[in-house]
């Protein structure tokens, strides 16, 4: 349960760090960012938003309302009826009961702590990486190094302990070969991110925590 809450906190706070949104937009933005990795249902999203609001990590910043067009006074009963009917057809209706959420300073600190947490897996790493631009450079480097070390360990493990265990099953061997190629490609990708992260740059921009960071590359 705690793990699920941390995943939801990462997802919600990371998206709200980018902009203020209501629940439907938040879920859609998360999918836009992470694609198939984003599997947050409305049934879990809204209770999580309520919890984060109670804990002071998010706040309600706006409530939409329905707008009704003005009805002009024509001076005649039939004219005013016609204007009323036209006004009803032209009524502009905003989204009903859509609470818009924003992140608080406490939420920003919570997001930073979650990204810096050394407990990573496939799902949390993807979320942390998506939003790590809001952290200081060392936190981003630590995140990438941890992931690279974990993948390097996995890459070495089957070679040391599983060689020959596939026997004559060529499909098992094919799966293991695919896993090896995928892990090696991910390590190379992480190496590239680390090189880019540690490359010197004169371009800086302010961070929410008051520091500076290089421009997104």
Task: Note down, in words, how this protein is organized.
With 217 residues, this protein is mainly α. The protein is 60% helix and 9% strand. The protein is built from eight helices and five strands, in the order H-E-H-H-E-H-E-H-H-H-H-E-E. The chain has helices at 2-18, 23-34, 42-54, 77-89, 105-116, 122-131, 137-161, 170-198; strands spanning 21-22, 58-63, 99-103, 204-206, 212-214. A three-stranded antiparallel β-sheet has the order 1-3-2. Strands 4-5 form a two-stranded antiparallel ribbon. Strand 4 (204-206) and strand 5 (212-214) form a beta hairpin. Helix 1 runs parallel beside helix 6 and helix 7 runs antiparallel to helix 8. The two termini are 36 Å apart.
How are the strands ordered across the major sheet? 1-3-2
The averaged pLDDT comes out at 78
Shape: globular
Largest sheet: 3 strands, antiparallel
Rg measurement, Å: 25 Å
Distance between the termini: 36 Å
Total number of helical segments?
8
What is the H/E string?
A: HEHHEHEHHHHEE
Find the structural class using helix and strand composition.
mainly alpha
Helical amount: 55-70%
Low-confidence stretches are: 64-74, 83-94, 210-215
How many runs of DSSP E, i.e. beta strands? Answer: 5
What percentage of amino acids are in beta strands?
Answer: 5-15%
How would you summarize the topology of this molecule?
Blueprint: H1 2-18, E1 21-22, H2 23-34, H3 42-54, E2 58-63, H4 77-89, E3 99-103, H5 105-116, H6 122-131, H7 137-161, H8 170-198, E4 204-206, E5 212-214
Characteristic terms for this protein:
mainly alpha; three-stranded antiparallel beta sheet; single chain; 217 residues; 60% helix; globular; 8 helices
């Amino acid at each position: 349960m705690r793990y699920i809450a941390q995943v939801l906190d990462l997802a919600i706070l990371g998206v709200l760090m980018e902009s203020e949104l209501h629940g439907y937009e938040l879920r859609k933005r998360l999918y836009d960012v992470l694609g198939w990795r984003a599997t947050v249902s409305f049934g879990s999203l809204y209770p999580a938003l309520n919890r984060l609001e109670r804990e002071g990590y998010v706040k309600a910043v706006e409530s939409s309302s329905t707008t009704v067009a003005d009805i002009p006074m024509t001076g005649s009963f039939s004219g005013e009826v016609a204007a009323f009917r036209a006004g009803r057809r032209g009524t502009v209706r905003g989204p009903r009961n859509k609470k818009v959420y924003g992140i608080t300073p406490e939420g920003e600190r919570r997001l930073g702590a979650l990204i810096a947490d050394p407990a990573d897996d496939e799902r949390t790493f993807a979320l942390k990486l998506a939003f790590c631009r809001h952290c200081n450079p060392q936190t981003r480097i630590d995140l990438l190094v941890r992931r690279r070390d974990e993948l390097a360990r996995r890459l070495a493990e089957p070679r040391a302990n599983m060689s020959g265990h596939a026997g004559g099953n060529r499909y098992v061997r094919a799966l293991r070969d695919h896993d090896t190629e995928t892990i090696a490609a991910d390590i190379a990708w992480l190496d590239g991110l680390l090189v880019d992260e540690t490359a010197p740059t004169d371009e800086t921009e302010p961070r929410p925590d008051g520091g500076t960071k290089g421009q997104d590359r």
